[in-house]
Amino acid sequence: MANIGRIHWLNEKPIGSGTYVLYWMQSSQRVDYNHALEFAIQQANKMDLPLLVLFCLTKYPQANLRHYTFMLEGLVQTKKSLEKLGIQFVMLKGNPVDVVHEFARDASLLVTDQDYQKLQRGWRENLAASISCPFAQVESNVIVPVENVSDKEEWSAATLRRKIHKHLDEFVHPFELSALANSSLEIDQDSLDLNDFEQILNSMDIDRSVKPSPRYKGGIHQAREKLSDFIAHRLGDYDEKRNDPNLDFLSGMSPYLHFGQISPLEIALKVQDAKKGGSTAYMEELVVRRELAMNFVYYDKDYDSLDCLPDWAKKTLAEHRDDFRQYIYTQEEFEQARTHDPYWNAAQREMVLTGKMHGYMRMYWGKKILEWTDSPEQAYQIALYLNNKYELDGRDPNGYAGIAWCFGKHDRAWKERDIFGKVRYMNANGLKRKFDAGGYVEKITRLEEKLGYLTDK
């Protein structure tokens, strides 16, 4: 096993007398650099049993056709990779607690990967209490396991950085999967046919109003192609050029990290090996900033509301809630990019069209929603709604942390002003000082024309 610190036993049940080891794959939807899969293989070999991988396709809150398409594109590749290892991949629709509980009846051991949000943690807690076999959770979607870094919610990146860095030598190293001794391919199990996932999508009761992304296709192959291109052509100048949305100097890894289609460890190793000028800045984003978000949702149950903010931010926003607002927009007007601001509209249109907004523009986007709504509470919920609906990397710790940052989370108090109080302010003039803001608007218009359809203006 790559790191013993990644393993957490969720119950103390004795080893069962089942016919296989079961890995419930949920947040780490990949084969390579999957510590949960490696642990499951090792345990299956130790027990001289085959290993079965189960995935539950459930109606996830706020997930729509865009998200499910991207996820299933990745799972097609994961299934093929597992089969090459002699591991059967089973996918069924239903509530994960019910489906996994049924499969665990014939398992000697249940293994899963770790997630940090309330819903997924609730699934695991319910299963741990109800199944009769041992249940192990293995943390594989962060570089350093969250509890190894800190036993509490951290104030900011500054307080987390030192704690993470002292563990990096222990957790940043490559590993290869062990060979499975007993194939599970001949086990007779019903499963949805991933070879025709369009039919699976058509059978699901999901929101179909958001089209699949014309720019991002799911899967480890696509993730690695984008990563290789980024390292070869943009990593060297990443620190200098990343905040210019006209240059596309970001890696594009966040959708693939969101669905666990690529490991942050694999990315970190390849970035480090490249030894390019932007490696330090990129590792700060990949490790410190990303894992600050994991720490946030793991230790703060209010991560999806204003209650998560530090006291100073809640106080200052409350003091300015009745300030005059020159512009007030409804959720529908925001969604349709019908504000007075062409830069904000372009950012919204980019997200609606592609499923990914440039990171610098997303900060500006969130700040302006706060400025142009009746109350901070309404602004927070509108920002979450839009981000979760259209972003491929929405509905995850980074999304929640990014929205919260716009309202003062993980930040300090700044000069006091109307509406924002002491929360950090951003304006259009700041965009223009950093890059050609008008060029960004033109870029998004050209992109819409190229991709064949226009968003509402």
Automatic annotation (TrEMBL):
Q: Which reaction does it catalyse?
A: cyclobutadipyrimidine (in DNA) = 2 pyrimidine residues (in DNA)
Q: Which GO terms describe its biological process?
A: photoreactive repair
Origin, by domain of life?
Answer: Archaea
Q: Print the keywords alphabetically.
A: Chromophore, DNA damage, DNA repair, DNA-binding, FAD, Flavoprotein, Lyase
What Enzyme Commission number(s) apply to this enzyme? 4.1.99.3
GO molecular-function term, one example from the UniProt record: DNA binding
Q: Name one Pfam family in it.
A: DNA_photolyase
- State the needed cofactors, names only: coenzyme F420-(gamma-Glu)n; FAD
Q: Which residues cross the membrane?
A: none
Keyword tRNA-binding listed? The answer is no
Family from the record: Belongs to the DNA photolyase class-2 family.
Q: What is this protein called?
A: Deoxyribodipyrimidine photo-lyase
The protein's organism comes out as Methanohalophilus mahii (strain ATCC 35705 / DSM 5219 / SLP)
